[in-house]
Structures are given as structure tokens and as C-alpha cells.
Amino acid sequence: MTTRRKASMPLLDESGSTLQSRQVRKRDPAQPSLPFDPMPERIEPCLALLKPTPPKGADWLFEVKWDGYRLALHIHRKDVKVITRGGHDWTHRFPAIVDAARALGVNSAILDGEAVVLDNQGRSDFGALQRSLGGRGGKKASDEAILYAFDLLYLDGHDLTGTELSVRRHLLEDLISPTSDGAVRLSQEMALDGEVLLEHACRAGLEGIIAKHRDRPYRSGRTGDWQKIKCIQSESFMVVGYEQSSSARGGIGSLLLAARKGYDWAYVGSVGTGFNTKDAEYLRKTLDKLKTARPVVPLKGKNLVFAQPTIIAEIEFRGWTHDGSLRHASYKGLREIQDNAAVFDIAERPAPSE
Question: What single DSSP character describes residue 318?
Fold first, then answer.
């Protein structure tokens, strides 16, 4: 029996018509042969640099920003591995994605993408993805998750990381049909100006958009070749303690948050909304097991309980204050410890808002 999966939310223009993706081009059979390259065990991912506005010009392509887990699919004949951004093997957590990858009909490939769970309106829902995996520390496998592939790094003996994005996208579009509704789908390039696409994405309740330079190779790290422009800011921070409260649900008034600062930590404020009683009880029980008398950030207070930097929270916020704290922060959920590479680096913080 074929499982029918949810479709992603269509973006509509002012007339109510669906915005179409760029037309898929066919592979050129006359393209030159390339020498054989050994398949790498892992490729450090290219990361998007946060920007306040989309770049301009024909050199940039734009996609929807997905809210989930960054994954790499390694396919070698019928053997498929799912590798997290931090290099952990999560093959057993995404069986539907693995099965769909085997069905692509490719001998060897490495696909870069984002695993998501879609809500009833076709939007990626981070909380739903977490629940499908059993929550933080859960052992469940997600049959609901799908992978939106947005890059192709290796194909049938050829390392593609040195080629420009337009070539890699061309080959990816040939591998995955834009109409696929299976567990591996194409993250489509949208044939729109970046500012127009961002407006539509924000109106539709999406997280934002991604801009990528068409002519650049795949370079690991945050080089600026890829940029993220968000409707609502959301990042991962380390929970380094909590403020006790006798009146708050679960005994937690707020969580204390920190970002990476080189090999150290920088305090970025606290969050006291977004979690329910069940969340608060779990957080307090878990953080109490991680208690430390020596805080990793310079804070003092008789109601503060400090914890070792182990718990990673996804936080939604509206910007930064002049003293470097999050504005209007709200808790979204916990990330796995294996996803610690996603913790926000303070060097990425934009200039303070007015």
C-alpha cells in the first residue's frame, strides 16, 4: 500500500494563483566525462549566513527555508546512511527517507538536505518533527519525516563539490522529480525576486528563505555563499541553568541561555515562555541532574540554578538588545545532543537593534 504524504504549502501571488518553481532543465548528454573520485565518508556542510535582507541580482537563486534537521544522505548501491550535521549516524531514525533514497535508482550519491515534518497546511513544523522522534533523548524512528534535498555533492563516482551550484542543481533536478511526493523531495528553486519571495513566505507563516550564489562551489562552513533571511528568528542555544520560581509551572521561572563564543560561552538572556507544565517538569528534572556550582557564564543570583552545558533548546526571538540579549524569546523545543553543531555562535549576531 502506497503512503500518501502531505504536500508542502503552496505560495500564492496577489491573484491567488500558485507561484511556480523554475522550469527543470534536462541533463545535457554531451557533457564531458569526469575522472573517478573516491566517495568521501563525510563532507562538512555549507552553512547559511544570517542576513537582514535578501541579496539582489541574477547571480542568486532562492528557496524556502525548512525548519527541521540538516542531514546528508550517503547512497552506495543499496546501502544508505543518514548523517547529521554534526557527523552522527541517524540512519535508524528515518526509515522512510532511507527507503526513498534506495528507490532513486542511483549507484552512489551524497545529497544535502533538511528532514522535516509538515503540518496540515504544508509548513515544516519543528515541534512535530521532535515528537515524531520521541522527543529529546527519544528512541523512536520517524515514519512521518521527509527530506527536502537542496544540493548534490557526489554522483556516481564524481565529486561535485568543486563545481558551481548551477551544475549541482541541474544534476539534482535530473535525479529527483519536482513533482515527487515521496519521502525524498526536491527543494525547489523559486523563480522570484528575493524580496518578493520573502514577503510571500512570511505571509504564509514560513520561517524564511535561503539565498545561494549560483556560481560558487560547495564550501564547508559559513562563507556567505549561502544566506538565510528569516521572517521570525529561531536559533539553537545551550541551556546553562534556570531561575527557580515557586509560582511558575514546574518550578521553573525561566531558562538561562548561552551561545558559543570561540571555545567558551556567552550569556544571551533567558526565556520564560513557550513551555508547558510537562516541559517545565522534564527540564527541571534533567537540569537538576546536571547541576554545577561553577556557572559557565558570569551570573549570580540566589534563585539561579546552574547546569553543565549539555541541553540544547531551539528558541524563537524577535531580535537582539544593545547588551546582547535575546528580545521576546520563546521556547520551541529541545534538540538532540548529537545536534550540538547547530548551537548559535555569538560571532553571527548582527549589530544591536535600535
Answer: S
Q: Which one of 65, 81, 212, 332 is the catalytic residue?
A: 65
Same domain, 121 and 186: yes
In a domain, 274, yes or no: yes
pLDDT one-digit tens code per residue, 81-91: 999 998 999 99
CA 130 to CA 69: how far, in whole Å?
A: 10
DSSP secondary structure letter of residue 131: H
**Looking at the structure, do residues 189 and 237 belong to the same domain, yes or no?**
no
Measured CA to CA in angstroms, residue 346 lies from 50, 94, 351 at distances of 12, 32, 11
pLDDT tens digits for range 286-320: 999 999 999 999 898 888 999 999 999 999 988 88
167, containing H or E segment = helix 165-175
From start to end of 77-122, where are the E strands?
Answer: 79-84, 108-116
* Residue 15, Cβ density class (10 Å: 0-12 exposed, 13-18 middle, ≥19 buried): exposed
Nearest-CA neighbor of 115 among 139, 80, 91, 79? 91
Q: What domain range is 269 assigned to?
A: 233-348
What does the alpha-carbon distance between residue 226 and residue 278 come to, in Å, rounded to a whole number? 38
Active site residue 56: no
